[in-house]
Here is the input.
Amino acid sequence: MGLFGRRSTTAAPLDGVDVVLADLDGVVYAGAGALPYAVESLEAAREGRALGYITNNASRTDASVAAHLTELGLATAARDVVTSPQAAMRLLSSRIAPGSTVLVVGGDGLVVEVEKAGFVVTRSADEHPAAVVQGFAPEVGWAQLAEAAFALKVPEEEGGIPWIATNTDWTIPQSRGVAPGNGTLVSAVHTAVGRLATVAGKPEVPIFEEATARFGAQRPLFLGDRLDTDILGANRAGMASALVLTGIDRPKHVLAAPEGSRPTYILGDLRELHEPYPEVQVRDGVATVRGARVAIDDPDIRIVSEGERPIDLVRAGAAAIWSTGRAIFGFRVPERLYADPFHRP
Here is the structure.
């Protein structure tokens, strides 16, 4: 159980929540366009509580993200957006002297935050930077990655400089499909220099701490589309979380989720934030969620009843598997259990 606790599963996910914190890519939008039901559901969630956003995407400024959300119909100020570059600056300020020169690998979203923090931006290892900060931008290519590798050639334990990555998401959902994320670029530098970066964004805690402090959250709910960053990070920060199946992770990933990456709620889309969340019962190896029932007949997972809603079948299947304390690989899973009728980019 996390710091903020978990609520009764018979209440709606929003009940008792004072701040909703939403991821962006795969939750609110994919590419430039809003995902179905996201805007109206989040606007309704704003009634009686604060609404903020947490994003690992380092390519844009908080102001540009706020403008995009406002264009989509979600009136948003820059301070409502917590970015991984902002979390990176929290880490950087504790590790190098004020006013130091920092080698930036990334775009405007990262450059703006480095300058706001009082550091000097360079793009060249020849400027003898005090640290390297790396974040995603579509224009990042070999030349920038090479400069980072040149600056990081000496391990930190041998007197080398710090290396902070805004995030290590492997993928980014786009309107045309799923594209490589910052994790692939960080991995390229790691392969070249044999060092690991310190990560500021999800699933690490600094970005959640920044959001909690900024909004004064007591009972926050975090909305995400990825188990390995969003849900794992929320769990580490002690926040209740909801995984929405409109982005990267699909039902098969939910069924296989390791213990630390399991959400408080599983949602087909954001409309379900406002619905009573059904009771999940597990008795004698049978998980029941409304009309959906899934049984464990070792080593088989058996669908007893599909119920009326596909999301309830996913919830029942996850509850059945998770209750065993065993990895999914030890079971024979019917394909119907991880069928995927849910919207995705």
